[in-house]
Amino acid sequence: MAYVPHTTEDQEAMLQRIGLNSLEDLFAPIPENLRLPKLLDVPAAMSEAEVVRHLAAIGRENADAGRGACFCGAGIYRHFTPSVVPAILQRGEFLTAYTPYQPERSQGFLQTIYEFQTLTCQLLGLDAANASMYDGATALAEAAVMAASITGRRRILIPETVHPAWTEVCRTYVQGHGASVDVVPHASGRIAVETLQSRLAPDVAAVVIPQPNFFGLLEDAKALAAAAKAAGALVLAAANPMALALLAPPGEWPADIAVAEGQALGLPMSFGGPLVGMFACRREFVRQMPGRIVGATTDQDGRRAYTLTLQTREQHIRREKASSNICSNEALAALGVTVYLSLLGKTGLRNVATASVQRAHEAFDAITALPGYAPVFSGPFFHEFAVRCPAPVAEINARLAGEGIIGPYSLSTVFPDLENAALFCCTETVSRDDIRRLADLLRTFA
Amino acid sequence: MFSEPTIFERSRPGRHSNAVPVPDGADITAFLPAESLRAELPLPEVSEIDTVRHFTRLSQTNFGIDLGFYPLGSCTMKYNPRVHERVAAMPGFADIHPYQAPATCQGALRVMYELQGYLAEIGGMDAVTLQPVAGAQGEMTGLLLIRAYHRSRGDDGRTEMLVPDSAHGTNPATASLVGMSIVKVPSNARGRVDVEAVKAKVGPRTAGMMMTNPNTLGLFEDQIAEIAEVVHAAGGLMYGDGANLNAIIGVARPGDMGFDVMHFNLHKTFTTPHGGGGPGAGPVAVKAILEPFLPSPTVARAADGTYGWAGDRPQTIGRLHSFNGNFGILVRAYTYIRTLGPEGLRGVAENAVLNANYVRVGVAEKFQIAYPEACMHEFVASAQEQKKTTGVRALDVGKRLMDYGYHPPTVYFPLIVPEAMMIEPTETETRETLDEFVAAMQSIADEDPELVKSAPHTMPVKRVDEVGAAKNLNIRWEPSK
């Protein structure tokens, strides 16, 4: 039997030791009418070789990005993963560990989390961070809940330029707190300071500012933050961490809480998960922060040591009074981000971000030069841009898929007035040849 | 003794790994306005070899299932098959985008669709959402479903959630997070919830009751069907915490016990692995009455055999994740179910319960067992006697086990047992491993109490000053001034 090492002799000897006659006797504490009288209706067991062959065949039914190129972003970004990242993540000491509740036996993981928290602070420009959240969306939702609890106010302003799925997750999370999400409409793909000001009121707990925004455009983060602060609201940043290699960090806007989706930092797309939420805030709010936190301290002999800290905020101690119910987080994914940022460092991350911006602008020029294709918005953008196409995006994408290319995100999915509008993304994994090939295929629709 | 500086202390200006591209286009200021740029990026600069050594050395001070027995109660630390990693890393699963057209990801949708079906069958339920990414998020999903159900019937006054005193901390935390108040139900002398206690607590404000079966004492809640009847009669719904499913998989099903909604911990029962605290996955299964409220989308199969997203649910509780949940974890769980098959899944429960009882009778020779009767997949021992006679506490026994090469059990949980040590061996351990562990426990019981109280003696660090960590908060590295 797979993964159960016992022989029949083992089982018999063990049953005898505990005074039972059969395996069925083990379930005597379960009332008989609740016991399943038959085996589960699931397919028959497979050997490892069979299961690998089976899954490989299923996997081949998916057109992976490696067959061509990926021009789709919209929250998931295909950057290159250095070989060292999976090699470290596959080490059994990390992969098969539980949460480091026992510090003496978990110094390695604890130190990597301390480093992750530091890297998060460095990228986001704030001075306190946690050990990770499920993803960027739930990190933002928890930030919204935290802002409501800090301010005692109940309305969260989220612009339309925030990832629509993130806004939906925020709605789901705030409902238990009597709080509400109020969506601020965009003007030409960005938040206008005046529109934001017209929505601000004394009941607004926080304003979310994306950077870059869902359309790839840069927001005037400092002006928006100033408007929010003037109304007594907290500023929540929702950032792409790769963009922060180049852009002013949220702490300088200044944001009070900043969240980011860490997947872009060395993790595979993996059909949208596992992801990893990065979460940082101003030091004064650290005791309201959700999630695990690692602190540096000393052991009995005065040596440097690490441990989980401020656990009295958490569910396993505080139960119904906890700041969040989060228990499992995304530790291994956060370790992946830590290894990635360590490998790339200051120069490397800037270079990946720069190459992505360069490819995106080259692609923008190539596509908008085609007859029938026009930019939807204007203004500076990072590595994504919206283009009005001469045909429905689904039709174009079907054609691109035939050539092994994952095409752009169709904006009309969420914004019905943006008919035939496509959101293209380029990272450093896209080559100039890929862009030429894309342009040639797009030209056939003109 | 071991000491590894932080990655920041290894930094030297100008160093980086080989994985760095060289930008060859126009200068960045041609694209981004100067006032939007950051002046400084304070990341470390480390060579590739030093990065590899840094993380490899750190890994060597960390304990995992691959290194030894990990009897951490309620966490189901069983062997994590390497084939799961191999499959999840296949490009057809790892290198696909969540927004690519369904026609180009039929395989991924098929895995999700079939997994929905397997989990519904295992739970005895009707429909499944794979979106929740952790057990606690599954709980939140479940309670939001219950709330939406009551509200859809105009039944807005149901704001109370019954939670046994033996429950996992996430249960009350979740109830509170969704705006419900908690009504605590005490355990009886048998370590179980009895139907009379529930009768005394239900009423017109009851939204439902959360239960874990078997419970955190490792005991099967044998009045579960009657309890479910009482809660249902009062108009409430039953939530099943699936954390302890390893005890009953293939043997009994929450859906048959009267649960209306439950979550699975794929990182526990389906061993996807734990990864130092995540990523996990917490899919939620429901009876048909709750299906209209599920998060969207789920995966459906059309008459022509193709798979697609099914998102048309006007009464949905909303979205819980940016995309489709932790897909990479779902692929691992799918692989596990296909590897084990129906006999293998039942064998999980049989051998998990066998191993727990086998260890229990051995440990019982030196330690009190909180509820000395046949257990399910785990049991709770107590160091109360030792504490009284020698001052040795559960924490000390746990720390001393490290010196013997084991991870400590879960200690001081459940809260209703003093000096609790919650032991869950799982089904993947050999008899010899279990014998050696029992011998270690017995030996610790006879050791010099001072030796035990000052343990561990062989770890990279001695006992860590946790109070000091909270008092002098240092949660990020900073260059010394």
Rg over alpha carbons of chain B: 25 Å
Q: Over the alpha carbons, how many angstroms does the gyration radius of chain A reach? A: 25 Å
Number of helices of chain A: 13
Number of helices of chain B: 15
Largest sheet of chain A: 7 strands, mixed
**Biggest chain pair contact, residues each?**
A-B, 202 and 204 residues
Write a compact overview of the structure shown.
The complex is a heterodimer of chains A (446) and B (481). Chain A has 446 residues and is α/β, with parallel strands linked by helices.
Please explain how this structure is put together:
The complex is a heterodimer of chains A (446) and B (481). Chain A has 446 residues and is an alpha/beta fold. Chain A is built from 13 helices and 15 strands. In chain A, strand 9 (294-298) and strand 10 form a beta hairpin. In chain A, helix 6 crosses helix 7 (164-174). Chain A is globular and about 80 Å long. Chain B has 481 residues and is of the alpha/beta class. In chain B, 35% of the residues lie in helices and 11% in strands. Chain B contains 15 helices and 13 strands. Chain B has helices spanning 48-60, 82-88, 91-94, 106-123, 135-152, 170-177, 195-201, 224-233, 254-257, 327-363, 384-390, 394-403, 431-446, 449-453, 466-471; strands spanning 127-129, 160-164, 181-185, 206-212, 237-241, 261-263, 284-286, 298-301, 307-310, 368-369, 379-382, 410-411, 420-423. In chain B, the strands form 3 sheets. Chain B has a 7-stranded mixed beta sheet with strand order 1-7-6-5-4-2-3, with helices on both faces. A 4-stranded antiparallel beta sheet of chain B has the order 10-11-13-12, with helices on one face. In chain B, helix 9 (254-257) links the parallel strand 5 (237-241) and strand 6 (261-263). Chain B is globular and about 75 Å long. At the A-B interface, helix 1, helix 2, helix 3, helix 4 and helix 5 of A face helix 1, helix 2, helix 3, helix 4 and helix 5 of B.
